[in-house]
Amino acid sequence: MAHEHDSATTPVREAGAHYDFAEIQNKWLPIWDELKPFSTADPGDKRPRKYVLDMFPYPSGDLHMGHAEAYALGDVIARYWRHQGFNVLHPIGWDSFGLPAENAAIKRGLDPAGWTNDNIAQQKSSMRRYAPSFDWDRVLQTSDPGYYRWNQWLFLQLHEKGLAYRKASQVNWCPFDQTVLANEQVVNGRCERCDNLVTKKKLTQWYFRITDYADRLLDDLNQLEGAWPSKVLSMQRNWIGRSTGADVQFTIDGRDEPVTVYTTRPDTLYGATFMVVAPDSDLAAELVADVRPEVRPRFDQYLEAVRGTTEMDRLSTDREKTGVFLERHAVNALTGERIPIWAADYVLSDYGHGAIMAVPAHDQRDLDFARAFDLPVRIVVDTTQPVTGAIPIIHTDPVTGEPILPEDAPLENPSETGVALTGEGRLINSGPFDGLSKSNAIRRVTEALQGSGLGAPAKNYRLRDWLISRQRYWGTPIPIIHCEQCGEVPVPESELPVLLPPAEGLDLRPKGTSPLGGASDWVNVACPNCGGPAERDTDTMDTFVDSSWYFLRFLNPNDPTQAFDPKEAEKWAPVDQYIGGVTHAILHLLYARFITKVLFDLGSISFTEPFTALLNQGMVQMDGSAMSKSRGNLVKLSEQLDEHGVDAVRLTMSFAGPPEDDIDWADVSPAGSAKFLARAWRVAHDVTSSPDVVWKTGDPALRRVTHRFLADAPGLVEAFKFNVVVARLMELVNATRKAIDGAPGAGDAAVREAAEVTAMALNLFAPYTAEDMWQKLGYEPSVALVPWRKADPILLIEEAVTAVFQVDGKVRDRLEVSPKISTDELEALARSSEAVARSVGDREIVNVIVRAPRLVNIATRG
Ligand code: ANZ
Ligand code: ZN
Asked: What mean pLDDT is predicted for residues 711-737?
C-alpha cells in the first residue's frame, strides 16, 4: 500500500465534503437491491455472455479475510466484463454439507441443518454488505433437498453406466473423524481435516470409476494450457500420473500361474537380478503359504511392521531398505534365468501388479535394496555410449585439455558408486538386443515379449477410483436399496430425493458405521423391485460430489424438473473464468472435470472442460504466517469492515500485489486505501461543469492521463494485474486533483472527464464509492453498467504537439498530433476539421502548405 497515504497524523488538507463510507454503504445497498443491476433474468438480453464463477464457500462461520480476498478479486473480473458490454453471470451459493458443519454441530449439540442455515444467513448478510456483483436470484445451497436430489440423480446416471460401483478394499481411515478418506484427502499421511495420522481399514465402499477417464483427464489438460496456472496443470498431471511401459510375465517355480510385473524399462529385462513383491499383496500371501516353516514367522512379522507404515514412508528414497527373502524363485521370461523373490515394502500392492522385476544397475531403489542384501548387480545399458540423435556431452581432460570422448569415459559400476545408471545409452549383456539404443530397445523387447506371448505394452496411472461414500450424517444419502433377493436396487427417479432422516434422535458421533443406520424407520423399506423387505444404503456422499457440477445448477437453481437445463448450459457454460484457492488445485478441479466428461458422454452438455480459465488467488496472512485463533493473529473481517469500510478493504485486496501472491495484512494499509477513496470521491464532488460539456475542449495534459488509463486498463485487468490498475487510478486522481486546485480549474471539461472515468474504473474495486461519485457527477445508477469509454488514439501519443490549421493565413483550428505525423496525414486532418471547412466555404483551394507536425496553411480563391 502506498505509504504516502498512510500517515495518520497528516491532517486532511483538502477541504470540502466529508467522505463517510458507512453513510454511502447504507445509502446504496437498498437501491441496488431494488435495481438488481446484476440480474441475468432477461431471456431477451442481446449482450454476449460471460460466466464468471467464484468457488463457493463452506458455511463454517462468518466470512473471513480469505473470503474477502477471493470475492474482491473475482468481482473485479465480473464487473470488468460488464463494462465491456457482456451479460455476466456471477452467482454464489454454499457448499453446505460436510464434516466441518457436522463436527461443529456435534460439539454444540445442535442439529447440523439448523447450524448450517444460521451460518449461511450470517454469511449471506455479510456478503451482501461486501457487495460482490452477484445475481442474488440464483442462489443455491447443496444441503437443500432441491439440490441434493440431483446429486442422487447424478449418482444413478453413473450407476447405470457402471461408473458407480461398490467394492471391499483397504481404505484410508481417519481414526479421529471415524471416516474413510479419499487418497486426495490424505496429506503427508495425515487427515486433511483433523491432521491425525491416517490408517488403513478394509471396508466395502462406493467408488466412481474416474480411472476410466484417466487418459482424457490428462490429455484434455492441453486445452487449458495458458488459461490455467501452469502449476495447477502440472499438479493435475502428476496426480493422474500416467506411466507407459510393459507387462512382463515371469514363471514361478512350483506355481502353475505366472506372475506379471509392470515395468517402464523393458529394455533392462536382462538386468533383472531379483523380483520383489509387495508384502501386503495377495500374491505375497500366496507365495509364503507353502514355504519353509522358518520363513513364515519372519514374513508375518515384517508384514505387521509394513501395515503400520504410511505410503509416503514406503515411497521415500532415503529410507533404509527392508525386506524378507521368500525362498522362492522366478524365471526370467526371455533369458531363462532363475532369480530370487523377495518381499519388500518399497513395492506397493496397489500399483501395477504389486510385483516388480528389480534391475539394480538402472533403478536407484532396486540398487539400494541390492546393496543392502548383497544381491547381484548387472549393467545392461552402457550409458557412456552415444546414442544417435542425442548430443553427447564432451568433457575435457583437466590436465591435457584434450577432449574425453564419451566412449573413453569409464562406465562406473553402480554396486561400487551406489548410483544407478538411469540415462540414455546402448544395450550390453542383452543377447540379441545388444547395441540397441535404450528407446529402440524398449520397443523391440516389448515386441519380442508380445511375439512370444510373454508380455504386452501397458500403461499405469497413479490415479485411483474416487471413493465417494462416507459414514457420516451430514451429506447426500446414496440412493440405493439393498435387497437380499435383488441386490443393489437403484431408488426409482420418481422417488427422489431420498431425504435425510431428521438428525433428532440419531447419534451423530463418528463410530465407523453411518449414523443413518440408527434411523430404522428410514432404513427399512420395501424393495422397489420385488416388494420384499430391504434396507436403504446408509452412507452419504463425499461433498466433492456436490461441488463437481454446481456450476451447472446455477443456470436454473430452482428448477424442480431437472438437474440443469441443457439449453441454458449451451448458452452460459462452460465457465469462462473460475476464481478460487490453490487448495483446490487437485481434488475439486479433477472431480469437476471428470463429471463434466461424464455429462458430455451422457449427451447432456456439449463441452468437455468445465472451467475455461482459472485464477488462483493467494492467501491472506498476518505477520508472515497463516491466521489462526491459536496463534492469536486472527484479523476479523467484520472489524476491518467496520473500521475502514467495505470499499477500502476490497481496494486493499486488489492493490496488495498480484492476485496469485499471498497478502500479509501487516504490510498493507486499508487506512491508506480509505484515504485514497475519499480523495477520489471529493474529486467528483468538486467538478463544477455539467454532464453535457464537450470533453474535447478540455485540458490536453489531463486528458492524456485519462486516455492512457482508458487504453491500458483493459489489458492490465485481463492479465490480472489489478494492483497496477489501482496504481494507475491513483495517478489519475492525483492529476485530476492538481487540475482542480490549479489551472485549468474545476470547471474544465477534462476534469469532468477524468472524474467520470475514475468513477467507472473504481467500480471494479470500490463499488460504493464509485456509485456515489457517479451520482454526484449527475448520472443515474448504476455505474456498474456503464460501457467502458474508448481511448482517443491521438491522446495516447506520448508527446503530442499542437498543430495549427490556417486558412489564408488565419488560424482556424488546433489539434494535438504526434510529433511524427506524416505530411499527408496532417493535411488530411486539416481538411477534415470542421472549423477549417467552414472557413473555406465554397471557395476553391489553390494551394496547401504542410509543415508537419506544426502547421497546415490552406490558400483559397473565391
Ligand atoms: C524395472 C525397472 C528398471 C524399472 C529400471 C525402472 C527402472 P512409474 O514411472 O511410477 O510408473 N514399479 C512397478 N510397480 C511397482 C509397485 N507396485 N511399487 C513400486 N514400484 C513399482 O514406475 C514404474 C516402475 O516402478 C517400474 O519399472 C518398476 O520398476 C517400478 F531401470 O521395472 B521398473
Ligand atoms: Zn428385491
From this structure: 95
Cell 467538478 belongs to residue: 687
Range of weakest confidence among 262-276, 306-320, 588-602, 604-618: 306-320
CA angle, residues 487, 492, 495, in degrees to nearest 5: 130
Nearest protein Cα to ligand 1, atom 8 = 243
pLDDT band for position 333 (cuts 50, 70, 90): confident
Q: How far is the CA of 527 from the centre of ligand 2 (A)?
A: 5
Ligand nearest to the CA of 481: 2
Cell numbers given for 108: 454444540
If DSSP codes are grouped into helix, strand and coil, which group holds residue 139? strand
Q: Of ligand 1's atoms, which has the minimum distance to the CA of residue 243?
A: 11
Q: What is the CA radius of gyration of the chain?
A: 35
CA distance 485 to 385: 67
| Three-state SS letters, 771-790 | HHHHHHCCCCCCHHHCCCCC
Residue whose C-alpha cell reads 473485479 in the numeric block: 76
Strand partners, 816: 802
Q: Quick check: 209 pLDDT over 60?
A: yes
Model-level pTM? 0.85
All three cell numbers of 515, joined, read 449414523
Task: Give, for 122, the enclosing helix (H) or strand (E).
Answer: helix 112-130
Q: What share of the chain is helix, strand, coil (3-state, %, to 5)?
A: 40, 20, 40
- 3-state SS assignment for residue 167: strand
Which residue, judged by its Cα, is nearest atom 28 of ligand 1?
263
* Cα–Cα dist 103/110, whole Å: 10
The per-type count for the chain, helices as H runs and strands as E runs, is: 27, 36
Closest CA to 609 of 90, 208, 224, 77: 224
The answer to whether the CB of 460 is under 6 A from ligand 1 is yes
Tell me the per-residue pLDDT of 88-115, one tens digit each, with 9 for 90 and over. Answer: 999 999 999 998 888 887 888 888 999 9
Q: What is the pLDDT of residues 34-79, one digit of tens each?
A: 999 999 999 999 999 999 999 999 998 899 999 999 999 999 999 9
Does 7 have pLDDT greater than 70?
Answer: no
218-to-183, 433, 596 alpha-carbon distances in Å: 18, 33, 14
pLDDT at res. 25 = 98
> Which ligand has the minimum distance to the alpha carbon of residue 533?
2
How do residues 139-151 score in pLDDT, each as one tens digit? 999 999 999 999 9
Pocket test for ligand 1, best of 218, 242, 260, 351 (most atoms within 8 A of CB): 351
* Whole-number Å distance between alpha carbons of 804 and 798: 19
The residue whose CA is least distant from atom 11 of ligand 1 is: 243
Average pLDDT of span 378-386: 91
Say whether pLDDT at 170 is over 80.
no
Which set of grid coordinates corresponds to residue 42?
A: 432477461
Q: Check pocket membership of 179 for ligand 1, CB cut-off 6 A.
A: no
